[in-house]
Amino acid sequence: VQLVESGGGLVQPGGSLRLSCAASGFTFSNYPMSWYRQAPGKEREWVATITNGGGNTLYTTSVKGRFTISRDNANDTAYLQMNSLKPEDTAAYYCKVSVRSAAYWGQGTQVTVSS
Description:
Elements: E1 2-6, E2 9-11, E3 17-24, E4 33-38, E5 45-50, E6 57-59, E7 67-72, E8 77-82, E9 91-99, E10 102-105, E11 109-113
Parallel strand pairs: 2-11
Antiparallel strand pairs: 1-3, 3-8, 4-5, 4-9, 5-6, 7-8, 9-10, 9-11
């Protein structure tokens, strides 16, 4: 199983970014995908989850209405569209999948929201 995140960067408050998570090594369309983030000095926190078919999504309260999780099962990729970014969204963002009771993480992509 391999997960590779991309799309992070430096953005001003109120700006947008779209993160991607390219997956391989498992049948992507069979598994829910999640995004997590970890700010400096803080624990990693769950951000959003999408079901395997993409029909259902869940979000942590702080990102509801601003972030959208989606997936492209034809291309084995999950996305996190982040709008109206705030300085408190600054963190390393990770995608995660659990396959046969084992959790797999990508290497992370840094998002910095600052003027």
